[in-house]
Amino acid sequence: MGQLEGRTAVVTGGSAGIGLAAAVRLAAEGAHVFVTGRRKEGLEAAVQAIGPSKATAVVGDIADPADLDRLYDAVRARGRGLDVVFANAGIASFATLEQTTEEHFDRTFDINVRGTLFTVQKALPLLNDGASVILNSSVRADDGVEEFGAYAASKAAIRSFARTWANELKDRNIRVNAISPGTIDTSGLDGVVGAEEAPAIKAQFAAKVPLGRIGQPDEVADAVAFLASGQSSFILGANLYIDGGENQV
Predict the structure, then answer these.
(1) How far apart are CA 130 and CA 121, in angstroms?
(2) Residues catalogued as catalytic
(3) pLDDT digits (tens, 9 = 90+) for 9-39
(4) pTM greater than 0.85
């Protein structure tokens, strides 16, 4: 039996990258995983990768409250409550202070901050006592990389949410923690920097990592599974860096 046998999990942004890797890992530990994202085709492929009997896809945008309601209606219909929420969905794009537009700022914060807040708020009636909520922050919240101002600020807000919500939900023994991945080799990263530029930019980031490489989605998924399980029962309000030492040494 896995560490999450019989549990129910939600993973937002679950059709690719870190979200998909986490959904696969949680299902391997025995959870039934509800995956959500904006692309129907990607979610259908994700369900096949996870295992059709272990996953349910719900198409939706976390920035749209109605889509979140549909997600949690599906969870409610299963009748077992909710044990794990991995609030992973988010976007990133480059813009210097001078280049930042209202549209860029609003889109970044609508999805990364507002979307995360309501992902967790709307889950509250379903969360079983002792559940685990995991928020996806980023090392970019700490390191001041140029052109990532709005994104970094949105991820700093996620880190702050983890502290506050951990306090607010501790009486139900619901543990809220954050993870801060470093540079992870995902299709999302390729989309941000461009396919042609991606190899060179990945090499630049890898050169800053003490372990000499960028991370893989499965390595982040392992940390998510740890925080979702009873193995992390005395961890609350923490921020787990998964960055190969990039921001640590």
Answers:
(1) 16
(2) 151
(3) 999 999 999 999 999 999 999 999 999 999 9
(4) yes
Lowest mean pLDDT among 55-59, 89-93, 200-204: 200-204
Spatial neighbors of 103 by CB under 8 A, at least 6 apart, are none
Identify the pLDDT of residue 74. 98
* Tally of residues, the chain: 249
Instruction: Output the CA–CA distances (angstroms, integers) from residue 239 to 74, 88, 206, in the order listed.
Output: 30, 14, 22
Under the phi-then-psi rule, with left for phi > 0, alpha for psi from -120 to 50, and beta for the rest, what region is 106? alpha
Cβ-in-10-Å burial (0-12, 13-18, 19+) of 28 comes to middle
Q: What per-residue confidence (pLDDT) applies to 47?
A: 98
Would you say 126 and 52 are in contact if contact means Cβ atoms under 8 Å apart? no
